[in-house]
Amino acid sequence: MTAASHRTGRAVPPRSATLHGRALAVLGAAASALVAAFVVVPGTLAASGPGEDFGRESELADALRAAFVAYWNSGERAFPPDLDALVDYWFRYHVAKAVIAALLLSVLVAAGTLLWKAFLRADGPGAGKRFALASAGVLTTLLALLSLAAVMANVQGAAAPFASLLPLLPTGATGAADGALGAVLAQVGERLAVAPGAGEHAPAALDVMIGDFARYHEAMAAIAATVAVVLAVMSVPAWRRFGRTGPAERRTRRTLGSFGALAASAALLVMVVAVANTTTAAAPRPALLAFFEGGW
Fold first, then answer.
1. Which superkingdom is the protein from (predicted)?
2. Residue pair 34/151 in contact by the 8 Å Cβ criterion
């Protein structure tokens, strides 16, 4: 017992436990603030640049429909001003989301590290405390994986903002686009169905669309491959420590084994994503046609 516990007659938590508790409280507050910022802030930051502020996704979609029709009918490769402003807005939006998600990921990794260390150090008969620490650690780990996915998706969106805008168009049978937009989408589908080099020259807008769609998947292929390598490397120390830990330390072995298996499984899953996106980037035309037909 410490001197303070002798004076009061009660057990006093170690100073390190108090500091860890405060650190977790700060990290929890930071994570909550960043989650709120992820939802609220990107639109505001994106609107701080030149162009119109799109308060709701429906407003952005309406503006995109009109700008997309104008672009297709222009016959030019360069975006008309309205579409250029939309693409710039969407780029800033994804950059803001990627930065906030990366900050959130850092906070969650720090919080998860503290939680799992506290779980491994928890001694005595306090099963309830260990269960609470383990539950909080699992939740934090899952949230960190979701944050990682958000970083990946938003970096991809920032790398090819025009392609990432296309899902806002009413494609496929469920889209039921009417009027000028419906006619343009039908023309896009017809042009994509024609083999390259067959018939008349493809519209300039179609070449840009195919190129940006390929870039969109190239970006995710590179991002996913990088993340897969990082996750695989992270699993190595866990497996090494697992091998050096004796059977008597069951809690430590289970924790290390679980972390190693999770990191390795996540690496494998992300590598599958990398391969799928590489395949699509190599032949973007069929995938883009499937997208406009509502099957992507």
1. Bacteria
2. no
Burial class from Cβ neighbours inside 10 Å (0-12, 13-18, 19+) for residue 152 reads buried
In total, how many domains does the chain have? 1
Q: Is residue 3 part of a domain?
A: no
pLDDT in tens, 216-272: 999 999 999 999 999 999 999 988 888 888 887 888 888 889 999 999 999 999 999
From the list 44, 46, 47, 148, the residue with the least C-alpha distance to 103 is 148
Structural contact between residues 153 and 114, judged by C-beta atoms closer than 8 angstroms = no
276: domain range? 14-292
Tens-digit pLDDT profile for residues 265-290: 999 999 999 999 999 999 999 999 99
Residue 8 lies in a domain: no
Contact between residue 270 and residue 231 where contact means Cβ atoms under 8 Å apart: yes
